[in-house]
Amino acid sequence: MTSSGPSPDHQRPDGVDDATVEALGKLSEALEATEVARGFLYSFHRLTGTADRTLGEAVDLFREAGHGDVADRLETELVGRNVIAGRWTFQVVEEYDADYYRVFQQLEEEARDKLAGGRRHLFEAEMKERERSAGRPGHEADPAEATD
Fold this sequence. Notes:
By secondary structure, the chain is mainly alpha-helical. The chain contains five helices and no strands.
């Protein structure tokens, strides 16, 4: 088996210097962090919704148990309450996506297009080439090489 190296999609275009590859790598790393943050935000959204529905069930149980005063207070003060002034979690998610996440994605893509012909993960692809043991099982440059 011969080592073919990274696919053309992961090879540095002519004229792109180390500093640019490193900067694009750092930008990609930052975008990946926003992806994780966005996932946590969606988890927050889902968990808060689950809590609100479960709270509603608790209200019903308090009422059935004869504790209407407790049920009434929970229902009027907490069930369906905004988590941030004027917003439920879906609105927080929508605003994050529109005002930050999409802008971040767009600017990262524009930087890659302008500086590296749109190629993604050049920094990581070059790191893989430096660190892998070419010719060894489990160290193939790409999936096609693994099946040779």
